[in-house]
């Protein structure tokens, strides 16, 4: 219903808002998530308005939407990512504030303070959340069972599991870093779990330097995993789906990715959550550091 409210807002706000409303998004293929059903439902109930939804491949969308915004050909509604990406397009003047929608729908009562803050720029609301993901390790349960492994809870347990897997001829980690952003999850978690989430936020805001000891330690931990050969060697040419498929086929034991992993395999009856693959949170490195996790928020 929140998504339909956003669509309705775009339909009636501004002069001459009738007829065709363009909705551009990046939910396609196995990750479409009911977008077509949602727009069909809206169109069946709307009067004098038709929402036309167009999906673009995820990586193509990133460049495509920036080009359209720069050329003055912005769609009426488009999906995006909360946080710094959203603030950048709001600062450039490409978005209309949605404060009336938030106030009228009581949305502050529906979302956490942190989620709402990710949709705010300069005191104004510019988006409505539609999905929130969590990043963690997805693992092949058959591979773990073969080596007698349980989901590790500490960094030491994770290193022990990796050593046993590597000795047995299985690559511990699959990483698809071709588009770069999946590799960021490793840095984010290593830093947040050692220096703390507030330090991580400060680094992203420019209040800390990338040559600080805290950052150097995070990169050192990551480099140690690489030196030990715990990552599949194809990480630079794989995307996140390639890494997921490597775990599916048992060529790697696990991958650090978001919960869209589940949507990617939703139609595969031979590969089911809880039975064929499992999930565990990023293990604890320093017990005194808060158990923080990350994950993107999709918005309209």
Task: Describe the protein.
This protein has 300 residues and is of the alpha/beta class. The protein has 13 helices and twelve strands. It has helices at 2-12, 35-45, 58-70, 84-91, 99-105, 113-117, 141-146, 155-167, 181-192, 197-204, 213-227, 240-248, 260-264, and strands at 19-25, 49-55, 77-78, 80-81, 120-121, 124-125, 129-132, 135-140, 171-174, 252-258, 277-280, 297-299. Helix 2 links the parallel strand 1 (19-25) and strand 2 (49-55).
TL;DR?
Belongs to the bacterial solute-binding protein 1 family. Helix content is 41%, strand content 17%.
Span from first to last CA? 13 Å
**Helix and strand sequence:** HEHEHEEHHHEEEEHHEHHHHEHEE
Might you state the CATH topology name of the largest domain? D-Maltodextrin-Binding Protein, domain 2
* Count of separate DSSP helical elements: 13
Strand content bin: 15-25%
Overall strand count: 12
Average pLDDT, rounded to a whole number, is 89
Q: List the strand order in the largest sheet.
A: 9-10-8-11
Main sheet: strands, sense, barrel: 4 strands, mixed
CATH superfamily of the largest domain, by name, is Periplasmic binding protein-like II
What is the radius of gyration computed over CA atoms, rounded to a whole number of angstroms?
A: 21 Å
Approximately how much helix is present in the residues?
A: 40-55%
Index terms:
300 residues; alpha/beta; D-Maltodextrin-Binding Protein, domain 2; 2 domains; four-stranded mixed sheet; three-stranded parallel sheet; 41% helix; 17% strand; SBP
How are the secondary structure elements laid out?
Blueprint lengths: L1 H11 L6 E7 L9 H11 L3 E7 L2 H13 L6 E2 L1 E2 L2 H8 L7 H7 L7 H5 L2 E2 L2 E2 L3 E4 L2 E6 H6 L8 H13 L3 E4 L6 H12 L4 H8 L8 H15 L12 H9 L3 E7 L1 H5 L12 E4 L16 E3 L1
Parallel strand pairs: 1-2, 1-3, 9-10
Antiparallel strand pairs: 4-12, 5-6, 7-12, 8-10, 8-11
Helix pairs in contact: 9-11
Protein name: Extracellular solute-binding protein
Family: Belongs to the bacterial solute-binding protein 1 family.
Subcellular location: Periplasm
């Amino acid at each position: 219903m929140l998504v339909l409210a956003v669509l309705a807002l775009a339909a009636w706000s501004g002069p001459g808002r009738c007829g065709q409303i363009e909705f551009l998004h990046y939910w396609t293929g196995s990750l479409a998530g009911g977008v077509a059903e949602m727009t069909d439902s809206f169109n069946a109930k709307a009067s004098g308005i038709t929402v036309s939804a167009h999906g673009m491949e995820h990586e193509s969308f990133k460049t495509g939407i920036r080009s359209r915004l720069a050329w003055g050909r912005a769609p009426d509604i488009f999906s995006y990512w909360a946080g710094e990406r959203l603030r950048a397009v709001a600062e450039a003047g490409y978005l209309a504030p949605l404060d009336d929608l938030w106030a009228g729908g009581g949305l502050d009562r529906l979302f956490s303070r942190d989620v709402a803050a990710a949709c705010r720029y300069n005191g104004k609301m510019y988006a409505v959340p539609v999905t929130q993901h969590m990043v963690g390790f997805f693992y092949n349960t058959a591979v773990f069972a073969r080596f007698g492994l349980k989901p590790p809870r500490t960094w030491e347990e994770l290193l022990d599991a990796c050593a046993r897997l590597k000795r047995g001829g299985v690559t511990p980690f699959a990483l698809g870093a071709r588009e770069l952003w999946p590799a960021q999850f490793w840095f984010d978690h290593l830093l947040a779990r050692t220096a703390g989430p507030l330090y991580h936020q400060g680094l992203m805001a420019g209040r800390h330097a990338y040559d600080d000891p805290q950052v150097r330690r995070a990169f050192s931990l990551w480099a140690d995993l690489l030196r030990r050969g715990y990552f599949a060697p194809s990480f630079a040419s794989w995307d996140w789906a390639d890494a997921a498929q490597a775990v599916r086929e048992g060529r790697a034991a696990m991958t650090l990715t978001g919960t869209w992993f589940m949507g990617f395999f939703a139609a595969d009856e031979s590969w089911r959550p809880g039975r064929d693959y499992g999930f565990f949170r990023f293990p604890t490195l320093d017990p005194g550091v808060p158990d923080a996790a990350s994950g993107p928020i999709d918005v309209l």
